[in-house]
Design goal:
Oligomer: single chain
CATH topology of the largest domain: Rossmann fold
Structural class: alpha/beta
CATH architecture of the largest domain: 3-Layer(aba) Sandwich
Number of strands: 5
Number of domains: 2
CATH class of the largest domain: Alpha Beta
Largest sheet: 5 strands, mixed
Length: 190
Amino acid sequence: MKKVYFDNGLKKLSLEEKNNLLKKYNFQQDDIQICYTDKRRFLSSGQKRGEGSIFFVSNVFDLGSSLEEIKSVLKAFTKQGLNIVCVTEGYEFFEGEKSETLIKGMEIAIDIKKMCHSFVIKNTIQKKRENGEKVGRHIGSKNKKPSLCEVHKDFIFQSLKNGVSKSQIAKTVGVTSRTIFNFERQNGSR
């Protein structure tokens, strides 16, 4: 028996509309089990799904609010052998080469979006500099990233000499273990 999953947003579909969807994708009413769920609960449940099962969502934004999130949900669904249909747009993501190509295309689109964003920021900064505007922190302003004070530095050196673990030092000082590792690498031991 195959399972057919409907996103909770599709509960308002009439019986006729559901039957038309099932017919379109060659599902017979007598050999399927219909379930209603949402994508988060569905992905986190970890339960086994039959090969060829299908998940209907009302639109592509039910899969996620960003291209990255949609891509990761599609990847997770197709990895489980699950087919996805976005009813409003008519998008179909079935297991196989076509879905892998679409996911790869999304990855390329995400990379292009990041490059475009970086390009726009660089151009904006360059134009501001050409117009004589100052870019960056104001003169006299300090870096907002907190730095270790001398008392902390001395405590860290002493603790390292005494063999205290870096994670314990980090908890005591109130910084991350990475900060302690970086501090030790940059300053060595006295």
